[in-house]
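Journal club side-thread
Mid-discussion, someone asked how the predicted structure for our own chain would compare to the paper's figures. Pasting it here so we can look after the session.
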Amino acid sequence: MIAPIHAMQHQQAQRMNGAFIRIDIRDFQNILHKAEGLLVVESKTGIFASTHLYLTSYKGFIVYCKSKEQLSIPDKHEKIYAPAVSLPNI
C-alpha cells in the first residue's frame, strides 16, 4: 500500500510529465529523419514476445512507438537503452 503522501507525489509527478503521444512507426521514423540531435530511448517490453519501445521528445511533446522489430536509429541521434520505462496510464 502506498502512503497518502507518496500517492499524492506520484499523481503530481504524472501531471508534470507532459503529453505522451503514441504514433505510428513510420511517423516516428519520419521525425528521426527530419530532426537533428535527438535523444532516443529504447526499451524492451513483454515476457513471451518482445516488443521494442522507442521514445523521443519532439516540439515539446514526448512521442513514442512500439515495434516488433528493432528500429535503426540514425547516427545523428543519441540512443540510450532503458531496462524499464514507465508510461502514465491514461
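Post-session note: The two ends are 21 Å apart (CA to CA).
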